[in-house]
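FAQ

Q: What does a record look like?
A: Structure on top, sequence underneath. For example:
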C-alpha cells in the first residue's frame, strides 16, 4: 500500500459520492462537490486509522515536542508534551468529525476553515520533518510559521478584495521561502540522518510514508482545500434543520467515543503493528534483503583543483602525486528491504542480550510489558502475580520486560513479583502493546495473544485456553 493507492481509493469513493449527490440533488458546482467529497473522505480515512490507536499518535506528538524543545523554548514544549494524549484525541476526533461534516455540507465556511487550519498545521509538521534534513535555520522555521498564519487568516476575511490581497501576499510569502530553499545559499545538502522525525504518523501504523512523500501529499492537499476555501459558497448541505444538528452531535460524540475507547481500556481493534497477534517476531527481526552500498572516495587534483569520485576498485590507479584524498561517501545503490522490527533488544540484569533465546523458547512464554513502571497500573500486578504462578505450574515461562529506570528492584519488592525482570528500550515496549502494564503470550516467537491490563484473563481461563492440551 502506497500513498498513491490511498489517493486512488479515496478518489473513487469521492466519485461515487459525487454521482450519488448528482443523482438526488444536483450540486451547483460539480468540481467543488468532488473536492468536497475527496477531502472529506481522506480526512475520515486518516482519522479512522489513527482513532483505533490514538496512543500511537500521542507518542508521535510527544516525539515532535521533544524535537521542538531542541530548537528553543524548551519549557513550553516539555509542558505541551505532557498533554500529548488529550491533544491527539481531540485532533483525531476533529479529523473524523469535520471530514464527515464536509461531505454532508454542515456549516460550510466553518467546516472548511477548520479543515484548512488542520491541513496547514499538518504541512508545518511534515515540512519540518522533511526539510530538517537540509539543516534548516530557526529563521526559516519562524518565517514558515508566519506564512501559514497569513494563509490561515484567509477564510476569516469577509471582504473579497481584502481576502484576495491577503491570499496573494501569503502565496508570495510561500514562493519566496521556496526560492530561498532552492537557492545555493540555503542550508546544506539533504541527509536522511539529519531529519528530526523520520515518520510523521499521518496514517498511524497503517502505512509508513517517507518524509518527502507525506510533505508533498500535504502540499497537494493545501491546493485542493484552498479551492474549497475560495468556493465554500458552492457547498450545499445534504441535511437541514434538526436532522443536520442531530447528525453533527451524534458524529461528534461517536468520534470522541471511538478515541476514548481505544485509549483508556483497549488494544487497537485493528492492529497494523508488527507485533500483532499471529506475527512471528523472530522472523520479522530478520533483514529481508540487504542494502547495496558502494563506497566512493573523493580526491582533489593538486594542480587543477578538480574534484573527482573514485570507486573502491579504482583506488589502485590513483597517482598520489597528482591527487589528494578529500572525503569518503557511501552511495546507496539499492536500499534493500530492512527488517520490520529492528529496535527490539532485550537484556537481562547482567546486560546480556537474550532476545534470540527468548523468541526461540519452544513452549508458551508470557511477557509483562511496562515501558514506564512509574506510571504503571499497580493493581494489575496483583492479578499478574497469580497468572505467573499458574503459568509456571503449567510449564510456561513468565517475564517482565521493562525500561531500566534504576529503581526496578524496589519496584519488584513493592508489587511482590517473583518472576525475572528483563530490560528493553521504551520505544519498542510502547509499540508491542498499548497498555501499562500489558500481557503478551508467545510461542516459538509467534504472538499468540495480547491483553490490556483492564482485560487480563483469569487463571482458570489460561488453563482452559492454553494448558489443558499440554
Amino acid at each position: 500500500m502506497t500513498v498513491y493507492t490511498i489517493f486512488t481509493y479515496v478518489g473513487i469513493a469521492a466519485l461515487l459520492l459525487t454521482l450519488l449527490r448528482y443523482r438526488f440533488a444536483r450540486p451547483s458546482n460539480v468540481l467543488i462537490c468532488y473536492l468536497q467529497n475527496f477531502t472529506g473522505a481522506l480526512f475520515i480515512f486518516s482519522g479512522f486509522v489513527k482513532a483505533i490507536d490514538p496512543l500511537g499518535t500521542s507518542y508521535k506528538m510527544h516525539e515532535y515536542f521533544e524535537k521542538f524543545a531542541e530548537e528553543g523554548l524548551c519549557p513550553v514544549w516539555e509542558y505541551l508534551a505532557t498533554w500529548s494524549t488529550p491533544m491527539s484525541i481531540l485532533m483525531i476526533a476533529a479529523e473524523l468529525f469535520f471530514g464527515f461534516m464536509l461531505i454532508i455540507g454542515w456549516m460550510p465556511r466553518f467546516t472548511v476553515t477548520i479543515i484548512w487550519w488542520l491541513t496547514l498545521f499538518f504541512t508545518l509538521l511534515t515540512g519540518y520533518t522533511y526539510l530538517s534534513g537540509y539543516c534548516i535555520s530557526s529563521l526559516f522555521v519562524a518565517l514558515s510559521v508566519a506564512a501559514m498564519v497569513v494563509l490561515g487568516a484567509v477564510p476569516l476575511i469577509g471582504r473579497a478584495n481584502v481576502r484576495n490581497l491577503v491570499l496573494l501576499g501569503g502565496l508570495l510569502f510561500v514562493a519566496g521561502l521556496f526560492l530561498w530553499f532552492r537557492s545555493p545559499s540555503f542550508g546544506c545538502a539533504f541527509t536522511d540522518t539529519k531529519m528530526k522525525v523520520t515518520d510523521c504518523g499521518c496514517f498511524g501504523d497503517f502505512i509508513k510514508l517517507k518524509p518527502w512523500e507525506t510533505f508533498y501529499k500535504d502540499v497537494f492537499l493545501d491546493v485542493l482545500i484552498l479551492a474549497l476555501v475560495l468556493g465554500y459558497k458552492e457547498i450545499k448541505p445534504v441535511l437541514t434543520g434538526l436532522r443536520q444538528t442531530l447528525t453533527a452531535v451524534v458524529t461528534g460524540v461517536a468520534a470522541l467515543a471511538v478515541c476514548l475507547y481505544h485509549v483508556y481500556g483497549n488494544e487497537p481493534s485493528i492492529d497494523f503493528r508488527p507485533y500483532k497477534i499471529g506475527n512471528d517476531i523472530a522472523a520479522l527481526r530478520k533483514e529481508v534483503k540487504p542494502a547495496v552500498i558502494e563506497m566512493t572516495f573523493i580526491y582533489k587534483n593538486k594542480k587543477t583543483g578538480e574534484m573527482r569520485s573514485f570507486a573502491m576498485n579504482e583506488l589502485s590507479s590513483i597517482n598520489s602525486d597528482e591527487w589528494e584524498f578529500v572525503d569518503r561517501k557511501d552511495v546507496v545503490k539499492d536500499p534493500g528491504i530492512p527488517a520490520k522490527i529492528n529496535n527490539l533488544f532485550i537484556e537481562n540484569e547482567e546486560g546480556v542480550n537474550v532476545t534470540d533465546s527468548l523468541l526461540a523458547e519452544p513452549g508458551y512464554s508470557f511477557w509483562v510489558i511496562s515501558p514506564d513502571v512509574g506510571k504503571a497500573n499497580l493493581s494489575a500486578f496483583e492479578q499478574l502475580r497469580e497468572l505467573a504462578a499458574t503459568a509456571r505450574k503449567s510449564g510456561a515461562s513468565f517475564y517482565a520486560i521493562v525500561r531500566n529506570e534504576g529503581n526496578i528492584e524496589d519496584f519488584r519488592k513493592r508489587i511482590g513479583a517473583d518472576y525475572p525482570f528483563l530490560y528493553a528500550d521504551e520505544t519498542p515496549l510502547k509499540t508491542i502493546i498499548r497498555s501499562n502494564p500489558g500481557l503478551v503470550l508467545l510461542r516459538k516467537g509467534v504472538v499468540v495473544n495480547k491483553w490490556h491490563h483492564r482485560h487480563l484473563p483469569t487463571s482458570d481461563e489460561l488453563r482452559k485456553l492454553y494448558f489443558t492440551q499440554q
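Q: Is there anything notable about this one?
A: The longest strand covers residues 323-334.
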